[in-house]
């Protein structure tokens, strides 16, 4: 397997929109498709695609808060057939390393759902808040944080 994580380019958008549709309704609420498109067009800061053998199978990024002290993991999504094969872990480790290179960041946060939060626990994230039905009915918000440098990174 030839794994490549690279910066997002606007010509990747149609493939990523297909990926999010493949994850609705299992991991994303239907309304989130338009939110993701808006993010790609107007709000991304650092965003990456995951390719295996030249095929885009996933993506995810991070944004910095205005005070530049927190990095927020954003919009992780993967082709359903590629989930559970280590690609999300590779992307998460990659992003943590990229965040550590920036300087000034003290905290990494992620807003996810009750379906995915155990994945982030493996990287040292701790649940700080749960809001039932936040994203949509049946899609709770789980807000998690961890310090920039964490023992699990070694």
TrEMBL record:
Listed InterPro entries: Acyl_CoA_acyltransferase, GNAT_dom
Q: A single Pfam family, by name?
A: Acetyltransf_1
- Out of the domains of life, which is the source? Bacteria
Gene source species: Flavobacterium cerinum
* Protein name per Swiss-Prot or TrEMBL: GNAT family N-acetyltransferase
- Record domain N-acetyltransferase: where: 3-149
């Amino acid at each position: 397997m030839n794994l490549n994580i690279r910066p997002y380019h606007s010509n990747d958008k149609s493939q990523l929109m297909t990926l999010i549709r493949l994850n609705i309704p299992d991991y994303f609420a239907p309304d989130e498709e338009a939110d993701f498109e808006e993010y790609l067009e107007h709000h991304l800061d650092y965003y990456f695609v995951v390719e295996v053998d030249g095929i885009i199978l996933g993506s995810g990024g991070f944004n910095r808060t205005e005070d530049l002290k927190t990095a927020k993991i954003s919009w992780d999504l993967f082709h359903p057939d590629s989930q559970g094969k280590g690609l999300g872990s590779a992307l998460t480790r990659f992003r943590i390393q990229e965040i550590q290179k920036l300087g000034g960041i003290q905290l990494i946060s992620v807003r996810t759902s009750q379906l995915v939060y155990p994945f982030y626990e493996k990287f040292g994230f701790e649940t700080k808040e749960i809001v039932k039905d936040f994203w949509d009915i049946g899609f709770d918000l789980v807000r998690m944080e961890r310090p920039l440098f964490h023992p699990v990174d070694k």
